[in-house]
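Colleagues,

For the teaching module next term, I've prepared a clean inverse folding example: a structure given as C-alpha cells, and then the sequence designed for it. I'd like students to try predicting residues themselves before seeing the answer, so please don't circulate the second half yet.
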C-alpha cells in the first residue's frame, strides 16, 4: 500500500519531483505483485484529476485492481472534486481503516 500526500516526489525542486513522480508511476505498473491500494491525500489528490501527468498510470493500476482511494476533504479543499478522473472519493476513517489493515504501508 502507498500513502501519497504530495503531487511531487521528494523535496527540493518541484520540477524534478514531478518527473520523479511520473517515473514512479510508470515503474509501479511493472511491480509484481501490484500494491493493494494507493491512498491519496492533501496535495496527492492532484495526481488523480484531469490533466495530471500520472493519470494514465493511475488509471492502468486501477484497471489492474489496485484500489485508488482519494481524500474527499482534500478534493473539496483544492476545489477538484468535479475533476476526479480515477479512484473513489473516501474519508479519513476509510483511509485509517485501510492503513490499519495493511501489512505494510509506504509513505511518499
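(Answer key — instructors only)
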Amino acid at each position: 500500500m502507498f500513502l501519497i500526500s504530495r503531487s511531487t516526489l521528494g523535496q527540493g525542486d518541484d520540477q524534478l519531483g514531478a518527473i520523479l513522480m511520473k517515473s514512479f508511476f510508470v515503474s509501479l505498473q511493472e511491480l509484481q505483485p501490484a500494491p493493494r491500494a494507493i491512498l491519496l491525500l492533501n496535495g496527492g489528490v492532484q495526481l488523480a484529476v484531469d490533466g495530471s501527468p500520472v493519470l494514465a498510470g493511475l488509471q492502468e493500476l486501477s484497471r489492474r485492481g489496485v484500489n485508488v482511494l482519494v481524500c474527499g476533504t482534500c478534493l473539496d479543499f483544492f476545489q477538484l472534486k468535479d475533476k476526479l478522473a480515477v479512484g473513489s472519493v473516501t474519508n479519513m476513517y476509510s483511509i485509517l481503516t485501510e492503513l490499519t489493515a495493511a501489512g505494510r504501508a509506504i509513505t511518499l
